[in-house]
Amino acid sequence: MNGRTEHGPDRAAAAYREVYGAAPAGVWAAPGRINLIGEHTDYNDGFVMPLALPLTTLAAASARDDGVLRLSSGDVPGSVVTLSVDALSPDARDGGSWAAYPAGVVWALREAGLPVGGADLHFDSSVPTGAGLSSSAALEVATATALDELYGLGLARPEAARLCQRAENDFVGVPCGVMDQMASACCTAGHALFLDTRDLRLRQVPLDLAAAGLRLLVVDTRVKHELGDGAYARRRASCEAGARALGVRALRDVPYESLDDALAELAGAERSGGDGAVPRRVRHVVTENRRVAEVVRRLDAGEPAAIGPLLTAGHASCRDDFEVSCAELDLVVEAANAAGALGARMTGGGFGGSAIVLVAEETAGAVAEAVGKAFAAAGHRGPRIFPALPADGARRVC
Ligand code: GLA
């Protein structure tokens, strides 16, 4: 294959030239991610541990001096969305359109008082949409990274991630946490990102699985259950209700050691009408934060194989207490573990999307095959399975 047809800076720049009639000032890349551990903890001010994938969204871009914003995408050939940066507003947005994500980033940067004007942007992405691998965050962070340099904003990466989250929350209207944007902006190759989502303090934790004879597989189930959309907001609301009932700022402030007391307190409150969901949601968040700390401890101790059982325990908690898994994700975990994986779990928001599987190198093939067979036996479409190699966060590529 030549450079013009393969995903990469050359193709993005060539497509930009075709759409806008001139070469772009540059091409910037922002990756998708998986999350090793720490699910549904980010909107509870908790801990997460994502890593960036080699899959990226590329933004070929140039600034314009007339306040016009033009957006095009390799996924929607032949269509250019033209907007005026002055007229950008959450009320006027087309939330269903992919263009709401980059437009929202321009809006959020300007809302923050940053001197951003017009631009021409063309996107070319290898991050699959709907796979739970953060294609939205990659699109947002690619936009922010391009505009940061084109307009000389000097944004710190965590600040850029926060503004991308604001774009998604307040412009697109999705109540996500900050993990995906932070992963896309701040990850580094060969590391997982240990992140405190309250103050965005972070540490790059070395993750050289190959040196330990291990592999981390991504299993994209290729299903996305519709019910995920409203359910995410409801999970978030339950967590906030739990924090209010316990008198803490966020569930992150409930120590693992006092979980039993907290659950007893919530059970008392629930007797007057709740459905028992809030205590289970709280238990997931508190135990999941604990699992993140334990995974970090084992990685720091040079025992990566020992994180396997924590991944599987995290999955059980997502499935039973947080109720964000689905039959296909459960099947990946079950089939992989039965075939000798060290551990497995869903990754990302849930209700479809992807799972991750930790395996010893020599069993990786057999485990992948077992998952494929289990899917065929259950009548599901074959999953897409590929290794997760921790890659770099956002950067200029040309
Ligand atoms: C989605 C959201 C993230 C996070 C995860 C669950 O990916 O965008 O902010 O809440 O779900 O951990």
Task: Describe the 3D structure.
By secondary structure, the protein is an alpha+beta fold. The chain has a domain at 9-207 and 392-396: 2-Layer Sandwich (Ribosomal Protein S5, domain 2). Helix content is 40%, strand content 22%. It is built from 11 helices and 13 strands. It has helices spanning 9-20, 100-111, 135-150, 157-172, 179-186, 228-246, 259-270, 277-300, 308-320, 327-338, 364-377; strands spanning 26-35, 47-48, 50-64, 68-73, 80-84, 118-125, 191-196, 201-206, 214-224, 343-347, 352-360, 384-387, 395-396. Strands 5-4-6-3-1-13 form a 6-stranded mixed β-sheet, with helices on both faces. The longest helix is centred in the C-terminal third of the chain and has 24 residues, at 277-300. The radius of gyration is 21 Å and the shape is globular. The two termini are 20 Å apart. The model has no long low-confidence stretch (mean pLDDT 96). The structure holds alpha-D-galactopyranose.
- Named CATH topology of the domain at 9-207 and 392-396: Ribosomal Protein S5, domain 2
Q: How many beta-strand elements?
A: 13
Number of helices: 11
Largest sheet: 6 strands, mixed
Order of helices and strands: HEEEEEHEHHHEEEHHHHHEEHEE
Which consecutive residue ranges, at least 5 long each, have pLDDT under 50?
none
